[in-house]
Write a structure and sequence with these properties.
Layout: E1 4-10, E2 17-22, E3 30-36, E4 39-45, E5 47-52, E6 57-65
Antiparallel strand pairs: 1-6, 2-5, 3-4, 3-6
Length: 79
């Protein structure tokens, strides 16, 4: 929809991984909240990190405000 999206992330590797989830290809959307396996957490930023253990996955529901941020080519870890 125009206010939310659903994403499923799965770590198929043998080591734990940290994943950066960003609102839009250029960080232009603000992620207001994320629901992970039924637990909702307020955010209010253009990105967040999630740690996935080996062989584990998570279903995320992202609540967003579209085009709330100025688009940027900078990577999340460089901002």
């Amino acid at each position: 929809g125009d206010r939310s999206t659903e994403v499923t992330l799965v770590n198929t590797g043998a080591r734990a991984r940290t994943v950066v989830v960003q609102g839009g290809g250029y960080g232009e959307h603000r992620i207001d909240a994320v629901t992970v396996d039924g637990a909702r957490r307020a955010l209010g930023g253009r990105d967040f990190t999630l740690r996935l253990e080996p062989g584990c996955g998570a279903r995320l529901v992202l609540e967003m405000t579209r085009y709330a941020n100025r688009p940027t080519l900078a990577f999340p870890w460089d901002r």
